[in-house]
Specification:
Helix content: 25-40%
Number of strands: 5
Radius of gyration: 14 Å
Order of helices and strands: EEEEEHHH
CATH architecture: 2-Layer Sandwich
Strand content: 15-25%
Shape: globular
Length: 87
């Protein structure tokens, strides 16, 4: 008989909905820039739906990274989205 393992759930910082961890993108801020999580420091999660909604996501990213540079955040987020689609 196979065991049913618990699937961890995490909250998207943009829409505040809970998803299974495998369905979210894990990011973190380094020097007010968004990067994919590399295993060091505090991180946060964004769902794939919110990655497409720039306006709501931008507000959440500005809050998480404690910055007001919208252009820099959006450029970096678009790079992360295109890299995520390739893999």
């Amino acid at each position: 008989m196979a065991k049913n393992f618990h699937k961890p759930t995490r909250m998207c910082v943009s829409c505040r909905q809970r998803f299974k961890q495998e369905n979210l993108v894990r990011l973190h801020c380094v020097n007010s820039e968004v990067e994919l999580y590399n295993g060091y420091g505090r991180s946060f999660y964004l769902c794939k739906i919110c990655l497409e909604d720039e306006k709501r996501t931008l507000k959440a990213l500005m809050r998480q990274c404690r910055t007001s540079n919208k252009d820099k955040l959006m450029i970096r987020l678009k790079e992360i989205i295109t890299d995520d689609r390739k893999s």
